[in-house]
Amino acid sequence: MKLKKAFIVFLILSALILFPLFELGKNTLWGFLLLLALFIAFILLHGKVLSKKGRGARFLSWIVFLAAAVCLMRVSGPPVKAVPAVDVKDPAVTGVVTVNEGQLTGVYTEDGAVEVYAGIPFAAPPTGEYRWKEPQPAAHWEGVRACDTFAPASMQQVTGPMMDSLMRIAAYGTYRWFDFSDNYTMPVSEDSLYLNIWKPAGDVSGLPVLFFIHGGSLTGGQTWYSEYNGESLARKGIIVVNCAYRLNVFGYYANALLAEESPNGTTGNYGLLDQIAALRWVNSNIAAFGGDASKITIAGESAGASSVNALCVSPLAKGLFRYAIAESSGITAKKPYHTFRTLDRALEMGRNIMEEFGAESISDLRAVPAEELVNTRYTNSAMTVDGYAITEQPHLTYEKGSNNEEALLNGYNGHEADVFSFMQKVTAETYASSLEGVLGNYAAEGAALYPPEPMDPDYALPIVEQGGDAKGSYDKILSAAWFNYSHYNWSRLLAAQNKPVYEYYFTKYNKGLAANHGGEMPYAYGNLDRHAWLYTDADRALSQAMQQYWVNFVKTGDPNGEGLPRWEPFNTAPDRVMELGDTAAMTADPWLEIYAVIDKYQNE
């Protein structure tokens, strides 16, 4: 069989394109094998038959070959797969645990040190007539429920596998080529109100509990994300719980007609009400897993941190927890920058969505299939003052001293806003005007504090330009306004009540998220080794320190402990923060000058 050089070149080019495309598209192993078989068949066919045909026949054969490859890519795409509670084949099953709704079992980690219970229902499915209602009690079940698999994520727009892979390469650094373990897509469902529990194995009692709320702009996210898996913290003697909650149009849709039908007159905060229902379930049932309901700390990152802040001001959550941990978001500003909106704006969007789907009543809108409703062109990514779950602007609750947390650990990262503005170009000429959206009439004053500088090349995504000669300075102020300020403001509000506050500033660089938004999570929750190639021994040392700070705080309300650098409370050192970087040490807060400008904008 004799093959021409041109054919070989085109064949190699085709392989170099098609096999990576199959990988980026998370195609199945059998899809790869069939693609390989297609290449072999085409080589054999060309060598024996097509090489003797005319140029037109050979050209047509290439068209057919590529069309077959594209069809194969589509039919061998990644399946929807439920995620197991542990990365162990046929894991050992725990003993039976009895909760209010029935009996259940979980599974052990490979070494038997941690028990994991995944997919425990804490409320009834919010479907059909329960869509946009307060969460209803979970049903009782007969027999023993096997809680060995995570439940589907809440209904959300799912990024295609190709885009997901590209983002993991360009933004997160977590991609592994030709690793078939992640060649699937996550399940989503309107029936998603389930929680997960990680506990130390064996007969334990009286353990403190960390109740974690995932982020995702209140529009996305899931409970099995590797960066906040609870296994590592459970090994340190606490119980970790996380929960799903309704998102976007299902979780934060507001409509006056819904408020009228609600016995509590509420609308717009269904996702927050889900979190409260999950917290109540934990209070009622955690003793069965060895936990102490009087020792619950709520925690969250990004929109999860904003949710923690909302729980701190909600009268419905009073008495359900004692401490709070918030990472990279909050809603205490007089004019919160995100995850919070006025009820008037929420109701206006509610009317727009009814018009979008041609609905004349709530019944009409409830009849719209979830798969269609999720694609609304309006984004519901904010909580509101509904008069029930949140009764007033959050800062007012703090000024009255009516908030719920007894102590707070909170903070932010060095490059919070970079990943949100990476497509925006800012030059020295447009710098000040670009800041008007976050500083209003004080944009020029803010710009004067940070002379125009380009992005730090370590944080500029390789697929885009640097973003202009003032992009780095712009991102600093954007980070300070959108994220850092919310923690500074929250800290001083709580310190004014003489309640302990500990504030951090995460700056550790690595090959992954580094100090971008979310970069602290694998450190604080002990999950570096889930992407081990991104980290060094220095990263692991920092992670051990951060985990211990977090665990100490959950146990006592104070992160300090033996062998750790002293973390001074904000109460006595309001101009200093704990820098979590190459080392852990107190340092001067580098953002105080821009905070003063943001204060002016907030108070105008």
How does this model look, in words?
The chain is α/β, with parallel strands linked by helices and 604 residues long. It folds into three domains: 1-78 and 156-188; 97-153 and 190-393, Rossmann fold (3-Layer(aba) Sandwich); 411-603, Alpha/Beta hydrolase fold, catalytic domain (Rossmann fold). Helix content is 36%, strand content 14%. The chain contains 20 helices and 16 strands. It has helices at residues 5-24, 29-48, 55-75, 161-172, 231-234, 248-251, 256-261, 270-285, 303-313, 343-356, 362-366, 370-373, 394-400, 431-434, 436-439, 443-449, 471-495, 521-524, 537-556, 592-603; strands at 97-99, 102-105, 107-108, 114-121, 144-146, 153-154, 188-189, 194-200, 207-213, 239-243, 291-301, 323-327, 407-413, 501-506, 576-580, 584-588. The strands form three sheets. It has an eleven-stranded mixed beta sheet with strand order 3-4-8-10-9-11-12-13-14-15-16, with helices on both faces. A three-stranded mixed beta sheet has the order 1-2-5, with no helix packed on it. The radius of gyration is 26 Å and the shape is globular. 46% of the residues are buried.
Integer tally of domains:
3
Strand content: 5-15%
Radius of gyration: 26 Å
State the CATH superfamily name of the largest domain.
Alpha/Beta hydrolase fold, catalytic domain
Largest sheet: spatial strand order: 3-4-8-10-9-11-12-13-14-15-16
Determine and state the CATH class of the largest domain: Alpha Beta
CATH architecture tag of the largest domain: 3-Layer(aba) Sandwich
Mean pLDDT: 92
Shape: globular
The biggest sheet amounts to: 11 strands, mixed
Q: From the helix content, strand content and strand pairing, which structural class follows?
A: alpha/beta
**Approximate helicity band:** 25-40%
Please give the count of helices: 20
CATH topology assignment of the largest domain: Rossmann fold
Low-confidence stretches: none
Q: What gap, in angstroms, lies between the N and C termini? A: 81 Å
- How many beta-strand runs? 16
